[in-house]
Amino acid sequence: MAEDIDVLIMGAGPAGLQAAVHAVRKKTSVVIVGKPENSAIYRAHVENYLCVDGVVDGSEMIKVGIDQATRFGATLVHEDILHVEAVAGGFLVRSETKEFKALSVVIAIGTSKKKLNVPGEKALLGKGVSYCVDCDCNFYRNAKVAVVGNGSAAVDGAITLTNYASDVTLVARELEVSEAMKTRLAESSVVVKDGVWAKEIAGDMAVTGLVLDDDSTLEVEGVFVELGAKGPMELATSIGVALDMETFSYIDTNKKMETNIEGVYAAGDIAGQPFQMAKAVGDGCTAGWFAANYVKKLKRKG
Predict the structure, then answer these.
(1) Which CATH architecture has domain 129-225?
(2) Does the fold of domain 129-225 match that of domain 3-112+231-301?
(3) In the chain, which ranges are E strands?
(4) Please, what CATH class does the domain formed by 3-112+231-301 belong to?
(5) Domain segments of the chain: what residues?
(6) What is residue 300's three-state secondary structure?
(7) pLDDT digits over 26-49, tens only?
(8) pLDDT digits (tens, 9 = 90+) for 4-30
């Protein structure tokens, strides 16, 4: 059963935490879903941010931000987001173990999509190599496929692929997911090869295999690279959020950080350059403030 809330914030970096602070202080119920350590600033050192004296560890700034947001009343769910969809009366968001129905959503989960950086990956992109299970699963009906990754996106993607592919193998050096996801994986038909990693993607005009670092080869027609959490663009476009028309690399917003979907806002790196903490915080302030106002207007309408 999904928990009803006012504002759900996707991402626990500077943009998401600032959005939470401004939204919750307008007396709305706010849940932040994300892993702070996934933020680009978490492992950085900050010295070009206003009022910061000297060099400050990014992880310490994030910790202070979490303390602020939760002290004001926001709730942090330390999990990856796996699914988001528009439903009657709002948006349904599913994380590793929880479900929320929110009246408004702020997308603040960055833009990076990690790559394996192995031979064959770049050359075979679109020829059997994919970074989006939800986008491309339908092309692999009755095929043998492999998913590479240790996190929630890899496990969820592998389970999803069992509805399409004839054989699904998950390659994971060491699974880093919740016990609930491990249980789902164990109950599925996914074959797990743990303790190994991808060394090379084989093929000429199309993928024919995945070479592992123990020198064994999986004969597959598709390789899905799912490192870390579900890709931000996958989550955004799944509810119809429009990207910029020139590069399709970030979410298009107006000055209120509104997207083309009513009730959905974007902030931080996912809303475009410059990729700086100052901009992320400013975006978060604006998005959180207007998301809370949007919720209040909805409630006044009854």
Answers:
(1) 3-Layer(bba) Sandwich (3.50)
(2) yes
(3) 3-10, 30-33, 45-46, 56-57, 75-77, 81-87, 90-95, 99-107, 129-130, 144-148, 167-172, 191-194, 198-203, 207-212, 217-218, 222-225, 264-266
(4) alpha beta
(5) 3-112+231-301, 129-225
(6) helix
(7) 999 999 999 999 888 888 888 889
(8) 999 999 999 999 999 999 999 999 999
